[in-house]
């Protein structure tokens, strides 16, 4: 009997890379196909159509995304194609072959004016184009495949790819001091923890778990980017000094939400996943970088 095939897009990204490592421990249960841009280019509808014509997976995990938040303000067509149109097409494909579709979204679908952790059911109101494209991708996924699972996450980091933790470590090795914004609040997500969560959802869904819809997942915590940098500084024993600044002193082309903490209780309740404390995950990751 053949094993269920799991297709993972965004092979070379942070989450795709962590899932590829994790897949080794699931090799007896599932077959995996990790698709990079050469195999599946989400900026090309023709590439998506050709890929879908060749493969009949049991699960598609869409980790690919246009994530350059500031560049999205000017590369709107490309961002929308990858984050919205392509998501809708993959969702429709999964619906047509009765495959599970999981796609990853972002805390940036919210406006950041909240004062308590956002629920998955809260109204989206993005304040930058990246967030808008991801919010539209969520809606297209649900419209084209009502059984879709959307997992919003935040502040993702890993030993792989480009991220805040690796940037801080590099800058702390190059400079005597750093200024980091202290008025944007959220929670980091170690991509390895998110990968474990996704595979737990996949396993439970293939065993008959009927839950669908939008979920939130991050590590537990409530910190600013400054707090995050201080922790990186302490764990790495850096000699660089870290200073807090207001985000108005560090203008960017795209606005960032001031508050993007998310309530993760529903994914814990529905799928029994474990939410690791943010500092413990950071302590795990930094020695690997």
Keywords:
289 residues; alpha/beta; Rossmann fold; 6-stranded parallel β-sheet; two-stranded parallel sheet; 9 helices; 38% helix; 17% strand; globular
Describe the model.
- There is one protein chain.
- The protein has 289 residues and is of the alpha/beta class.
- It has one domain: NAD(P)-binding Rossmann-like Domain (Rossmann fold), CATH 3.40.50.720.
- It has helices spanning 14-23, 45-54, 76-96, 129-144, 164-174, 191-206, 225-236, 265-271, 278-285, and strands at residues 5-9, 31-35, 59-62, 100-106, 149-153, 156-157, 177-181, 185-186, 189-190, 213-216, 223-224, 241-245.
- A six-stranded parallel sheet has the order 2-1-3-4-5-10, with helices on both faces.
- The longest helix has 21 residues, at 76-96.
- The chain starts with a strand and ends with a helix.
- The mean pLDDT is 97.
Total DSSP E strands: 12
Domain unit count? 1
CATH-derived architecture? 3-Layer(aba) Sandwich
Most strands sheet: 6 strands, parallel
Helix amount: 25-40%
N-to-C terminal Cα separation, in Å? Answer: 40 Å
Q: Which topology does CATH recognise?
A: Rossmann fold
Would you list the SSEs in sequence order as H and E?
EHEHEHEHEEHEEEHEEHEHH
CATH superfamily: NAD(P)-binding Rossmann-like Domain
The largest sheet has its strands arranged as 2-1-3-4-5-10
Beta content comes to 15-25%
Q: State Rg.
A: 19 Å
Low-confidence stretches: none
Alpha-beta classification: alpha/beta
């Amino acid at each position: 009997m053949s094993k269920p095939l799991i297709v993972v897009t965004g092979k070379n990204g942070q989450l795709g890379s962590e899932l590829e490592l994790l897949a080794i421990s699931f090799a007896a249960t599932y077959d995996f196909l990790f698709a990079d841009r050469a195999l599946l280019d989400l900026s090309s509808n023709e590439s998506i159509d050709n890929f879908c014509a060749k493969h009949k997976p049991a699960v598609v995990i869409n980790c690919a995304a246009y994530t350059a938040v500031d560049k999205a303000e000017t590369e709107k067509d490309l961002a929308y194609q990858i984050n919205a149109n392509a998501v809708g097409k993959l969702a429709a494909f999964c619906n047509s072959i009765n495959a599970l579709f999981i796609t990853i979204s972002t805390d940036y679908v919210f406006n950041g004016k909240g004062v308590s952790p956002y629920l998955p059911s809260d109204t989206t109101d993005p304040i930058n184009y990246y967030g808008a494209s991801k919010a539209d991708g969520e809606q297209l996924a649900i419209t084209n495949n009502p059984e879709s699972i959307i997992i919003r996450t935040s502040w993702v980091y890993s030993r792989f790819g480009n991220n805040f933790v690796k940037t801080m470590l590099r800058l702390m090795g190059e400079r005597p001091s750093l200024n980091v914004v202290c008025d944007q609040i959220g929670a980091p997500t170690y991509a390895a923890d998110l990968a474990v969560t996704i595979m737990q959802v996949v396993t439970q869904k293939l065993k008959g778990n009927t839950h669908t819809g939008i979920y939130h997942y991050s590590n537990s915590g409530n910190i600013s980017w400054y707090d995050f940098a201080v922790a990186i500084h302490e764990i790495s024993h850096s000699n660089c000094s870290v200073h807090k600044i207001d985000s108005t002193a560090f203008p960017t082309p795209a606005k960032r939400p001031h508050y993007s903490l998310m309530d993760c209780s529903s994914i814990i309740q529905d799928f029994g996943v474990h939410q690791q404390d943010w500092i413990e995950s950071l302590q795990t990751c930094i020695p690997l970088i």
